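User: Let's play a game. I give you a shape written as tokens, and you guess the letters that built it. Ready? Here's round one.
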């Protein structure tokens, strides 16, 4: 028994030296919340409440996206052992009416990826006033989701090279500038619309001043990932609490 224990200890020490005791971080991506499932991107508010309760019961720590990136880049040396990041794309009004009360109850950080063309202009979206109110809680942080959520592959096919270059500038740089003007703080992160990215888009994002960008590639993020293509799990209506647990346990 002592020999086995020594072998286990030696193995753990070796892995700690080799990998620096690295922690992988699941980044979750939500869209809409409600009592009725109108589409696959919506989850029931009650199901979201179950997920938050499960995270707390199982000793998970919800950390900010910024803290996760600082850990991945070595700016901070450690984070809680069972860390998870929560993000929400698009800026649907259910964030304010359905999600926010639960976030305030649990006092956990959330990153909102917003495309500003819809804000205060559509009946399904948040208003600028609501976004500012959410940020004033110190729990929500607004970041960029391009200017109007385009499909870059489709646009590249139908636009000339010059037109496409201007289009990219509007979607990536223009979104950042608009959000910074409206929210009054630096916008550092970008969520790729439809998860679409390529070398040209990444270069533009870096030139525009983003320090990180997120995909919808479903796996835990690690220090080996590039900052401009960080993976996320999309949490959808088909994901009950059992599937949610598998995702967090890397068994999905």
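Assistant: Ready! My guess for every position:
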């Amino acid at each position: 028994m002592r020999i086995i224990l020594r072998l286990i200890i030696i193995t753990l020490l070796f892995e700690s030296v080799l990998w620096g005791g690295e922690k992988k971080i699941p980044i979750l991506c939500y869209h809409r919340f409600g009592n009725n499932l109108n589409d696959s991107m919506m989850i029931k508010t009650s199901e979201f409440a179950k997920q938050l309760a499960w995270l707390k019961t199982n000793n998970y720590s919800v950390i900010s996206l910024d803290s996760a990136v600082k850990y991945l880049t070595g700016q901070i040396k450690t984070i809680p052992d069972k860390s998870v990041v929560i993000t929400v794309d698009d800026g649907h009004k259910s964030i304010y009416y359905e999600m926010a009360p639960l976030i305030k109850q649990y006092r956990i950080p959330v990153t909102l990826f917003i495309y500003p063309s819809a804000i205060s202009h559509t009946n399904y979206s948040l208003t600028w006033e609501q976004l500012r109110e959410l940020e004033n809680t110190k729990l929500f942080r607004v970041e960029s989701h391009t200017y109007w959520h385009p499909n870059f592959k489709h646009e590249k096919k139908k636009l000339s090279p010059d037109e496409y270059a201007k289009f990219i500038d509007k979607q990536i740089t223009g979104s950042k500038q608009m959000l910074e003007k409206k929210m009054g703080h630096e916008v550092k992160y970008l969520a790729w619309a439809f998860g679409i990215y390529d070398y040209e888009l990444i270069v533009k994002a870096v030139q525009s001043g983003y320090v990180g960008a997120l995909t919808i590639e479903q796996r835990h993020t690690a220090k080996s990932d590039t900052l401009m293509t960080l993976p996320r799990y999309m949490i959808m209506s088909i994901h009950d609490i059992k599937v949610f647990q598998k995702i967090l346990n890397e068994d999905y």
